[in-house]
Amino acid sequence: MTELHTDEAPQPVLAVVGRxxxxxxTLVNRLIGRREAVVQDVPGVTRDRVTYDAQWRGRxxxxxxxxxxxxxAQGLAALVSEQAEVAIAAADAVMFVxxxxxxxxxxxxxxxxxxxKTKKPVILAANKVDDERGEADAAxxxxxxxxxxxxxxxxxxxxxxDLLDAILEALPETxxxxxxxxxxxxxxxxxGRxxxxxxSMLNRLAGENRVLVDDVAGTTRDPVDSxxxxxxETWRFVDTAGLRRRVAHASGAEYYSSLRTQSxxxxxxVAVVLLDASExxxxxDQRIIAMxxxxxxxxxxxxxxxxxxxxxxxxxxxxxxxxxxARVAWAxxxxxxxxxxxxxxxxxxxxxxxxxxxxxxxxxxxxxTWISELVAETPPPVRGGKQPKVLFATQAGTRPPRFVxxxxxxxxxxxxxxxxxxxxxxxxxxxxxxxxxxxxxxxGKKV
Length: 447
Fold this sequence. Notes:
By secondary structure, this protein is of the alpha/beta class. Helices cover about 35% and strands about 20% of the residues. The protein has helices at about 25-30, 75-90, 105-120, 130-140, 160-170, 200-205, 250-265, 285-295, 310-325, 345-360, 365-375, 415-425; strands at about 15-20, 50-55, 60-65, 95-100, 120-125, 150, 185-190, 225-230, 235-240, 270-275, 300-305, 335, 390-395, 400-405, 435-440. The strands form three sheets. It has a six-stranded mixed beta sheet with strand order 2-3-1-4-5-6, with helices on both faces. It has a six-stranded mixed beta sheet with strand order 8-9-7-10-11-12, sandwiched between helices.
């Protein structure tokens, strides 16, 4: 994920629209110079509007990839079209992608009528022109009345330089309005298995429909960055594709979505893992939490759909938490409802608590006084007839807190867990994993 550049002028925004399966996401990957947009040979893989940073000839701009636009769409397809319209409204220029091998269709002409009403610059991209013979087919697109069709092959890169030059000509040096405010917020990954309400939660926090919401599990496939105001300050949320199975067992669009979900977690500082409070805690839920801990990110656990939980379910859930989530008892927990808005105002304090624990540092002097007292009170277990001594302790880093114990012998895993538990009891560290490692001093060497 690209870092925010708070010291630069706001970037102009280009919205990419077109019918389903004309190659928009492949073309976006070509423009931004990396494979980030989900691409699969199935219509309608992109469903939300997704933003990416791009650069050409020293100028930076934002590309907004949208789902396939159909003016007469119904149901989920209508929501996709609505997202495209929102992207156009927020953009400074529009790139309209047409499949040159098919030519202009009635649906394309409907889109053109809408684009003309926006009075925004439109770049017409004639995609899938893989050779000179295809240029003749592309010439027929002059009939759309949008000016010169820029012939391009998203798959092979043919004509992409000329297209990028045309985009820079259409975009202003600075945008008329921003698609997102770049204020350097803390980065939050919104994680959870499919259909736990991640997109609904993001929309609730944002106060608008930033992300598609549908009863079909797995509607979100691309991570969608959103600047959201929570608790009076701006946070950068990433709504990620629902994790269903391990990456090694995923395929197609789901495979790339899983990869980017992991990338979003790696780029985040804190993760909010949503669980469905109305259903038993699943192995998938625990795996996502484990991913967060293994990545060393701060953690907040939010039980969504609390409006569907009755008294019997609450009693069962309490037992499940004690049994299934004992290893992350340190994580702040919230009972929320994206549907009703219940307790969503408590999310910001929970995020701050987790981030504060994640960044906590203990001075070396204080840490060694503490560890000496702890070891004197509860010595390490004897191993091989000898009792190891803890010679020295230091905090090697933060985000997450990492501690190194220099010892005269190996410390059992149970004793390391005991030290971690006492660190939490005495110093806090709410909302963050802790790493405790041991370095055994070799004989004849000084620490």
